[in-house]
Design a protein that fits this description.
- Helices cover about 30% and strands about 45% of the residues.
- The protein folds into two domains: about 10-80, no CATH class; about 85-230, Calycin beta-barrel core domain (Lipocalin, Beta Barrel), CATH 2.40.128.20.
- The chain is globular.
- It has four helices and ten strands; from the N terminus they run H-H-H-H-E-E-E-E-E-E-E-E-E-E.
- Helix 1 (about 10-25) runs antiparallel to helix 2.
- The longest helix is centred in the first third of the chain and has 24 residues, at about 55-80.
- A ten-stranded antiparallel beta barrel has the order 1-2-3-4-5-6-7-8-9-10.
- It starts with 7 loop residues before the first helix and ends with a strand.
- The chain has helices at about 10-25, 25-45, 55-80, 85-90, and strands at about 95-100, 110-120, 125-135, 135-150, 155-160, 165-175, 180-185, 195-205, 205-215, 220-230.
- The protein is an alpha+beta fold.
């Protein structure tokens, strides 16, 4: 029942009317109801809901109203690009790529390609679109790299036309701000999972080297190396 806009006299009349109705309902209940009605009338005379409604519920309600604002503020903070995203932005542009694949003893297989990189979704992710050749066949790849503000770590995933799977890695930037080391588990040539480590080194503004290591014969081995040179 809503008492908004009611004055003391209105509430007193209502309480008195309820007491009369209960008395008329039957003499057997009169002795029990009358004291209750009188108590209610007395409470009403003391003031509308005076002494019966405390401030705690209002305070609790205020806290509940404030909570969504706090959560939203935290969400907005976590969603904003920061210094690590500015670091990723250094990878924007068109890059010539020299790819070396190490499959065992002897000289590595070498191929060429081009990477078109750009920051997307408001500067939150670095997108890479790679085209080139591999083992004499056309090669296409797509990668996305970001920095998770909540987890405080870099992450990346890579897909290409050489498989139907995905490589997913996470890692951290070193204190110099020039080496990003990421790790994960990927599928090897035989389809079995392989522990993988990828290292990106920023040599200078025009050169970056990406190296991928895997476990072979129980030892970590360099599997691929890509040297990116910024195209003029």
């Amino acid at each position: 029942m809503c008492f908004e806009g009611w004055n003391r006299r209105s509430i007193s009349v209502l309480v008195a009317g309820c007491a009369v109705a209960l008395l008329v309902a039957g003499p057997s209940r009169a002795g029990e109801v009358a004291p209750n009605a009188a108590a209610r009338a007395k409470a009403a005379a003391a003031g509308p809901l005076k002494g019966r409604v405390k401030a705690e519920p209002e305070q609790a309600g205020a806290k509940l109203e404030a909570a969504p604002d706090t959560v939203m503020a935290e969400m907005m903070k976590a969603a904003m690009p920061g210094p690590r995203h500015e670091w990723l932005k250094k990878g924007e542009g068109r890059w010539k790529a020299t790819v070396k694949m190490f499959g065992g003893p002897g000289e590595p297989m070498v191929s060429e390609g081009v990477a078109e990189n750009r920051m997307i979704l408001g500067g939150r992710y670095l997108e890479e679109r790679f085209t080139g050749s591999m083992m004499g066949q056309p090669f296409e790849g797509y990668g996305l790299t970001g920095f998770d503000n909540r987890k405080q770590q870099f992450w990346s995933f890579w897909v290409d036309n050489g498989s139907t799977g995905m490589m997913s890695l996470t890692g951290q930037l070193d204190s110099t701000g020039r080496t990003l080391t990421m790790q994960g588990v990927t599928d090897g040539p035989d389809g079995k999972p392989v522990n993988t480590r990828a290292v990106t080194k920023v040599v200078d503004d025009k050169t970056q080297v990406w190296s991928m290591y895997g476990i072979a014969g129980g030892q970590e081995t360099l599997m691929m190396e890509i040297t990116y040179t910024r195209a003029e």
